[in-house]
Write a structure and sequence with these properties.
By secondary structure, the chain is α+β, with helices and mostly antiparallel strands. The chain has helices at residues 2-14, 24-31, 34-65, 85-88, 195-198, 233-251, 254-269, 275-304, 359-362, 399-406, 415-425, 444-451; strands spanning 73-74, 79-82, 93-99, 106-109, 114-117, 123-133, 143-152, 175-182, 185-192, 206-213, 218-225, 316-324, 327-335, 340-343, 350-352, 383-388, 393-397, 463-468.
Length: 469
């Protein structure tokens, strides 16, 4: 009754009516009147409803106008983010639904509050949150909150793939891959035009060649990377690979190799005199003549075409391998920034078969077309020799593979980096692409070519990788 009295007094006072002493008894009877009591209760209940409704309206408006920032996504890249209801202050939600996700390629896990999927379209996309909060009737239409989700385009889609000019006299295929026997092992090679070249319709500058020189028992694989700034480097790389193979086809005959075979046998059995020196001399004399032959033939071609030799600038790496009863002999040569890596049988050691013309040591990339490399004091260090019982992988690659996968030259000396590279080849990568090194795998060349489509920001050069396994 006291509350009723206070309410009516306040109401009358607002209307400039005061209860004087001579009206006290009348006021007492007035506030005890049942009709007046019910009227006050009805008024108070309506006021309460008004406050509740106002709070609901302001709560809903606050939610609708609340700023929400979702992490950006990328087309064709897995997306996942948690919508944290506690941090957003949404603990009073009694219903929640997100519309517009299917066309984007996303889903929402209502239990864990996870937004996830693989976006299929890009843009500033609008998605709608339908919600109701505590205090609202179950049959009320849900409120709509619109938020923006930014999905960036797939970076790959921004690159054009313009075919190179097949009418060009020095045209060659943009992408090539092959696999075959290599002595008693297998070889797989892929060479792919870089995105930077495809984007403008220019040519693949990389090249490779391999050959089983049957009469001698030796096999050779060569890889070359044409200089991007040289106008005919694609021809320079092609000629470099083909010339080095043709040289050894002519000169690596059983007659010419008889003494070397005997030296290797004595070296293995630790018999004979100065076998190491004899091997070093043989490797240097034969491989240096081969490299010089390539240089001079390129010079002849440049003269014939009335072009500068610089137009044919290309790196060159190659290995010669022969299987003996006591193991494998591996000879190597390299000029430029393309590595040759030999991994032992149990994947615990890596032997870098050449040093790279990069950084302070090399002073910058060198090319087989540069006559000065043959006069350099470091020329004799460009040759490598290894005699091993067996090996798991022998790899030759251009910097289109080396740069994104090894980053710096020092990593080429670390077996853990090569093992990581092998794991990458075997499918542990963002694209999930796998190269199956099973001897019976007839699709390995295509697999390697597909794997070489990997995305790495800033690395869009030609890619060539040869693997003996």
């Amino acid at each position: 009754m006291e509350e009723i009295e206070k309410y009516i007094k306040a109401f009358l006072s607002q209307n400039k009516i005061d209860i004087t002493a001579n009206k006290a008894a009348l006021f007492k009877l007035f506030i005890e009147n049942e009709e007046n009591i019910n009227s006050v209760k009805i008024i108070q209940e309506n006021q309460r409803k008004i406050m509740v409704n106002w709070k609901l309206k302001t709560r809903i408006d606050d939610i609708i106008s609340q700023s929400i920032s979702l992490p950006n996504g990328t087309v064709n890249k897995n997306y996942e983010t948690k919508i944290d209801f506690d941090k957003l202050g949404w603990s009073d939600f009694i219903s929640f639904e997100i519309q517009g996700l299917e066309q984007i390629g996303l889903e929402f896990n209502t239990e864990d509050k996870i937004l996830f999927g693989n976006p299929k379209i890009s843009g500033d996309l609008k998605i709608q949150i339908l919600f109701r909060v505590e205090g609202e009737d179950d049959n009320i239409t849900p409120h709509v909150k619109t938020i923006t989700l930014i999905i960036n385009p797939d970076p790959k889609s921004l690159w054009k793939n313009i075919e190179s000019d097949q009418d060009d006299p020095f045209w060659k295929e943009d992408n090539v891959s092959t696999s075959s026997d290599f002595l008693d092992k297998k070889i797989v090679i892929a060479s792919k035009r870089g995105r930077s070249h495809a984007n403008v319709g220019s040519f693949r500058d990389d090249h490779f060649t391999y050959k089983n020189i049957n009469d001698s028992g030796w096999s050779i694989v060569a890889v070359s990377d044409g200089a991007g700034s040289a106008r005919l480097s694609r021809e320079g790389s092609k000629m470099s690979c083909e010339l080095i193979v043709s040289y050894f086809e002519e000169h690596f005959t059983p007659e010419n190799l008889k003494e070397f075979d005997e030296t290797l046998f004595n070296h293995h059995n630790k018999t004979g005199e100065d076998t190491s020196k004899k091997i070093s001399r043989f490797v240097y004399e034969n491989l240096s003549k081969a490299a010089w032959f390539v240089n001079k033939e390129l010079e002849k071609t440049a003269t014939k075409l009335e072009r500068s030799l610089k137009d044919f600038h290309a790196t060159l790496i190659f290995t010669l391998v022969k299987k003996y009863e006591f193991g494998y002999a591996i000879l190597s040569f390299g000029v430029g920034d393309c590595p040759i890596g030999l991994i032992n049988k149990d994947l615990t050691e890596i032997k870098l078969m050449n040093w790279l013309d990069v950084g302070e040591f090399g002073g910058g990339t060198r090319f087989i077309t540069m006559p000065e490399i043959f006069q350099s004091k470091q020329f004799q260090t460009r040759f490598g020799f290894k005699l091993v019982d067996d090996f798991s992988y022998l790899m030759l690659m251009t910097d289109g593979i080396y740069d994104p996968k090894f980053v710096v030259e020092a990593n080429l000396e670390k077996i853990e980096k090569w093992n990581k590279f092998l794991v990458d080849l075997q499918g542990e990568n963002q694209e999930g692409l796998k190269v199956d090194f099973n001897y019976e795998n007839a699709e390995i060349a295509d697999q390697l070519s597909n794997w070489m489509d990997f995305w790495n920001p800033g690395n869009h050069d030609d890619r060539t990788l040869a693997i003996i396994y």
